[in-house]
Amino acid sequence: MTVAAVDLERLRIRFVPGTDDLLWAKRTPSADAGLVPHADLDGLVAMMNGGFQPKHGHFGMIANRDVIVPPRPDACTLVVGDDGSVRLGPWASLAPLDEHAESLRQTPACLVLGGALHADLLRGNDKRWAGHASDLQTRRRSAIGIDASGKVLLYGIGEEGDPRWLAEGMRAAGAVAAAEFDINWYWTRFLAFARDATGAMRISSSLIPKMEHQSDSYVARPSTRDFFYFVRR
Known about the structure:
The protein has 233 residues and is mainly beta. It is built from 3 helices and 16 strands.
């Protein structure tokens, strides 16, 4: 696994639904849908992929208080406050969405909670996290986690690892709560941004090699899938 640590006291996290997510929810995407807002480009540092497509599990998605997919009570939930704070845990145990919550994204049940792996992972029952096939190598998987201070967000990506080892890796990196985000090669991304020679904001590097992208993705080329991005505070 490779893990990136994000200092939430220095960087603010924001969420953007993809154009396909909006179409699935019977929304008409605006001209700037699927893009980092122009006002945030100067402070843009990095992005990370979001979760499963809404049609795969109907996991909740709220962006800037706009409910695109209603939250599921049984799902692991990343909640972003309007101050940039982050909470991660089962939706049923988190405080109800209020005026201080800006966005949320849901996933299958938390991989790690209270520092402990989900009991189903220990039993080898990993179907809810898109499991594994005994006769095949598994797939690239991503995860997000929060450390004990609540001030460091961890993004992890595993090569050919099953859900249990993804959870073990996140816990070893310091996550007291962790959730599986999107899977498969094309959808798992953690990318950094910088201005190019012309002054345009472009993707400058990736966390690991061969993360699929085009240089103007997310800033000029709309994303079909949801994502989070980080800007300087």
